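TEACHING EXERCISE
Course module: macromolecular assemblies
Task: Read the component lines below, then compare them to the predicted structure of the full complex.
Student: A.B.
Group: 4
Components provided:
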Amino acid sequence: MTSRSQARLGRSILLHLVLTPLALVWLFPLWMMVVFSTMPDNGIFSPGIELLPHGGFIDNFNNLQRDTNFVGAIGISVSVAVTYTILSVLLTSMAGWALARYEFHGKGAVVAIIFGTITLPYAVVLIPQFIMVARDFALANTWIALIVPPLFNSLGVLFMRQAFSMMPAELFDAARVEGVKEWRIFLFVALPLARPMLAALAIILFLASWNNYLWPLLINSQPGAMTAPVALGTLIGLTKVSWGGIMAGAVMLTVPMLIVFVLLQRHFIAGIAAGAVK
Amino acid sequence: MRTQNATAYRFLTPYLLIFAVFWIWPIISSFLISFQATRTVPWRFAPAFNWGRLIGDPAFYNALKNTLLILVIQVPVMIALAIVMAVLLNSPLLKARGLYRFAFFAPVVVGEVAYSAVFRLMFSLDFGIINKLLNSVGIPKIDWFSNVTPAMALIMIAVTWRWAGYNAIIILAGLQSIPEDVYEAATLDRVSKVKQFFHITLPLLKPVIVFCAVLSIIGTMQLFTEPFLITERGGPGGGTETLGLLLYRQGFRSLNFGYASAVAYTMAGLAIAITLVQLWLMREPK
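Instructor-supplied answer key:
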């Protein structure tokens, strides 16, 4: 073995020696979430160290369902996230298309306002949004309250604007020469070409809606109208509550997203990285 | 290209309506509300009412101090960790890359409530797995929830766990966009890998790192769920109270919209100031 490949081997071993413990530490909370979700409460709150799953997930789930209607809340969360994702992808890709492919009065102003306000913290709009939706529109504890206000998100517009502006103009001009209407060009030429970007955007938006906590906590606080994270959050800190049940709920919120992450990792990572690499 | 006003606005209007109603108008509105006394009906214009109270409010300074403290410690630690993760994940020597990527990126999909619950359980005093593990190697158990310093550390640990991988994804994308030949000359000149990292990689990554820092600072500035759920409403005794939590308590527990709006605009002011500093740091050297 040459000294060069020996050095390479040494570096490789060192790399794995550093990365493996770090990876294990990082996986630990997720692993413990699964372990806790299968243990009875008297097992969770006992002095022994338990690092392997037991068989009590169903019992814990039943305890959770006794503490709060979690299945109902999951139903609301799924419906809201699906509706929000479809609407938001549609709205932001339409807006992105207009900004990428047309010249029109006020274009500069629209882009400037979107860019100029994008780093403002969400906290700034929280109070007026709440007053508007809860008091002026009287829409608290409805699906509209969960779905419509978060549609303002402008990152998707910039993302889709970028996607559409990278496409060669000839693609669309050819259709125009044949007299195809603009909305048909958008729907049947541009959107299919943008499929990978739409997938990345849809995953990020779905995840954001699925995990959204603060706005649903404020606006849909009635038991029958809560999303799953809000319903689960109400249990944390109660004295007479099943912690195994809370962990079962956490697993039900997390594991489906982990599976989606593994299956669609490429789109996921593209969606997150796109914020930075233009 | 000729102007196509009608067509363009047909595509743009649905989004612009939502954007105006739920983003632009609230930005203006909360600025105006911060100058009103909102606990009387009708609200009345009283410019110094909320801002005057803010300047003299110990609860505000406590929340501001905690938020800045978390910001100053947690964000640099997390970004440094994210750079390490990204560089190591990018190494061609790495085996089982998918497993390592999963370990670091998985927290990105975990919701705030789910992970807050797990961290709360893991760090509990008598039966938390962390204290049990510390005990088993001879370290006395730490009361993570009743003392301010461990409670703050816990919040920072939790946020770092949740967001380091997210930043690593962005930094990794930045690393992979650096062309290979940049390193070739250095390698031929037998410049060590470590030197290459500090003199080539880091300077080229600067825009990406600044971007991550801005995102993280604005995110941490609004920190709410972790002190709300993990350390139970900013406990112990306000020791982990953040500006986000103060806004929540004032706005939605006390329904004091004017004061809460002043807190929100303080956060916005800080975010703007920090963004400007970052842009200044990023300016092209003359």
